[in-house]
Structure prediction request, 91 residues.
Amino acid sequence: MSIFFEKTNKKKSGAPFVTLKLLLIVLMIAMLVMAILNDIDIFYVKLVFVLVGINSIVEALKSYLQKESKKTTGKEIGLAILFFLIAIFLQ
Prediction:
């Protein structure tokens, strides 16, 4: 059972990171609602992917400032690049 209940050494996020993540989540929900109201307008879906990419960059910055492993920071940056590419190639 140690697989599911491993202890992590994560530090708590600072207030600016929590505020920024909350703002990004609210914006993502608003863009999804706007996309649904406008018959799945692709512009709003692209904005959601851009906001998810920005959220991933914020996570990478947080993990870098908390001196977590470079592997974690690299994964977050890789996810951000992936989301930005998805936003670019959506038509």
User: Anything to note?
Assistant: The chain has a mean pLDDT of 84. The helical segments are 15-37, 42-65, 70-89. Residues 71 and 77 are 10 Å apart (CA to CA). The first helix runs from residue 15 to 37.
